[in-house]
Amino acid sequence: MQPRASIVRVAAAFTAAAMVVSAGMASAAVKKKAPKPSCKIVAAKPGGISDQSLDIVYGDVASDAKNLTAVIGVAKLIASGQDSDNRLGREWDISFTIDGKQVTLQSYDGALASSFAANGTLSFDTKNNQVRVTISLADLANKLNAPVRNKASVITNFVVNTATTIVGPAVPGALRAGTYYQTGQADRVLSSAKYTAGSPSCVKVGS
Fold first, then answer.
1. Residue 123: CB partners within 8 Å, gap ≥ 6?
2. Do 62 and 28 sit in the same domain of this protein?
């Protein structure tokens, strides 16, 4: 039979070992923090553009298992049809590559026609000064031949453009939802930053 002192020492040793293991597990748990969300992939300094609605501040993109949302942030987004600097039409484009395949999402707005996106659904957010386009991954694959592999596809080579345009009412046979003429480029920003499809982002997909 072991002396009582020996039993106490053995128990203390086991307790100390358990504390070390627990501390190690806690340390490992602390290290596994959630990845930092991607925000404002394309950044630019505002200024130099007379129409603040076309003055690019940033561009962004995010996706989930069903949709992809692209965002163009401007200095001050004027509501549709109320931009005194460009009453006839405005254009916002964001292009990028998905696993090497180029995609361009174009948005238009004019006093003579309702706002629309060439592909996807357009949303104007005058509170946050954002032009957003959401397109389904199914349409990206089937219409634009740019399939997105969630958690795998790399989106990069960003180009954000704004332009003055003349956008008229829809006519039969028009290539877009309405007649359209670009009258001049306003702003342009590029970035080689990368976004992995499905990664955390400051952009709320589908908004």
1. 130, 131, 132, 133, 134, 207
2. no
